[in-house]
Design goal:
By secondary structure, this protein is an alpha/beta fold. The protein has two domains: 178 residues, FAD/NAD(P)-binding domain, CATH 3.50.50.60; 105 residues, FAD/NAD(P)-binding domain. Helix content is 23%, strand content 28%. It has six helices and 19 strands. Helix 2 links the parallel strand 2 and strand 3. Helix 1 packs parallel to helix 2, helix 1 runs parallel beside helix 6 and helix 4 runs parallel beside helix 5. The longest helix is centred in the last third of the chain and has 21 residues. The radius of gyration is 21 Å and the shape is elongated. The chain binds NADP nicotinamide-adenine-dinucleotide phosphate. NADP nicotinamide-adenine-dinucleotide phosphate binds next to helix 4. The site of NADP nicotinamide-adenine-dinucleotide phosphate has 22 residues, from helix 4. One of its GO terms (molecular function) is thioredoxin-disulfide reductase (NADPH) activity. Its cofactor is FAD. InterPro entries: FAD/NAD-bd_sf (IPR036188), FAD/NAD-binding_dom (IPR023753), Ferredoxin-NADP_redctase_2 (IPR050097), Pyr_nucl-diS_OxRdtase_2_AS (IPR008255), Thioredox_Rdtase (IPR005982).
């Protein structure tokens, strides 16, 4: 018989890890299933300068590793598997993975989001050959080279600043004439001599046979096209939720799972936490807070129901 867990958490980013700490600390029999890397998107960030208490040497990876150790110490079981099918209708929830089947009284969905593609020609073809979506993973390849960053939000500007530690020059290409990023990041970027900006412009095409050699850029106001010679292009134009598995199983809005403030979804016994949720602020701290609340609500749900 397949073991029955009190709580299964799907996803090992900050939301899932925080849920694991709270669930196992309250002595729930807890399993966390992750298909790839623990830490999720947080591991793609070099510096978590706005996470309270992280004054120096706090990378997304180091924080995630500490969170995982904390959950392990409280008793969370960690499994690497990819869930391909879920049955959430019955009181006992069943998850089918590529390697195994799992059963639980409660499920916490913390599957997060993936980087969105910008949509220019050859973006997919040259991915991994000069086009990247993760600065901490790939910055080193571009030491002393010219690179571009696409986007104007917090991610684009945080990573553009980080990339100046490696690259000769970073050109930020943004589709409007003002950045979406928080003002303090804007100030840092504008003061950085290695960063320049191309405003009101989008990338039309990536040029290069085997590896990226340049970008064709279109000015949205004039329609004028120009070529920017770069060896690297980092795309940070937002994220898309990883929620396909839960379509028609829980209420969603544009792919994001709708919860109440206790992280309850529309399906009893199923909770959601982190970037997968419909919410206004997607940060490590809000993901961790969601995880804590989801685990606490899951525990209450078990105590109020008979299994
Ligand atoms: P975001 O805030 O949605 O910004 C996406 C940026 O990409 C915007 O500037 C947008 O332009 C641009 N864009 C969107 N689609 C595009 C396209 N197809 N082609 C060209 N440009 C496009 O996404 P994000 O920066 O990844 O941030 C996501 C969330 O994580 C936010 O809540 C953010 O605050 C948070 N975050 C926080 C930090 C931090 O606090 N240190 C770091 C990273 C992320 P427009 O401005 O014209 O819409």
């Amino acid at each position: 018989m397949v073991h029955l867990y009190d709580c299964i958490i799907i996803g090992g980013g900050p939301a899932g890890l925080s849920a694991a700490i709270y669930a196992s600390r309250s002595r729930m029999d807890t399993l966390l299933i992750e298909r790839a890397k623990y830490g999720g998107q947080a591991t793609t960030t070099d510096e978590l300068e706005n996470y309270p208490g992280s004054i120096e040497n706090c990378t997304g990876t180091s924080l995630s590793q500490r969170m995982k150790k904390q959950a392990e110490d409280f008793g969370t079981i960690f499994v690497k598997d990819e869930i391909t099918e879920v049955d959430l209708d019955s009181k006992i929830k069943v998850l089918k993975g590529k390697d195994s089947e799992y059963r639980a009284k409660t499920i916490i969905i913390a599957t997060g989001a993936n980087p969105r593609l910008s949509g220019f020609k050859n973006e997919k073809e040259l991915r991994g050959r000069g086009i990247s979506y993760c600065a901490t993973c790939d910055a080193d390849f571009f030491t002393d080279l010219d690179i571009a960053v696409v986007g104007g939000g917090d991610s684009a500007i945080t990573e553009a600043i980080y990339l100046t530690k490696f690259a000769e020059h970073v050109t930020v290409i943004h589709r409007r004439d003002e950045l979406r990023a928080v003002k303090s990041l804007q100030e840092k970027a504008f003061a950085n001599k290695k960063i320049s900006f191309i405003w009101n412009s989008t990338v039309e095409e990536a040029v290069g046979d085997e590896i990226l050699e340049g970008l064709i850029i279109k000015n949205k106001l004039t329609g004028e096209k120009s070529r920017l010679d770069v060896n690297g292009c980092f795309v940070f134009v937002g994220y898309t939720p990883i929620s396909e598995l839960f379509e028609n199983k829980v209420s969603m809005d544009k792919g994001y799972i709708v919860t109440d403030e206790d992280m309850k979804t529309s399906t009893p016994g199923v909770f959601a936490a982190g970037d997968i949720r419909k919410k206004s602020l997607r940060q490590v701290i809000t993901a961790a807070a969601d995880g804590a609340i989801a685990a606490t609500t899951a525990e209450k749900y078990i105590s109020e129901n008979e299994f």
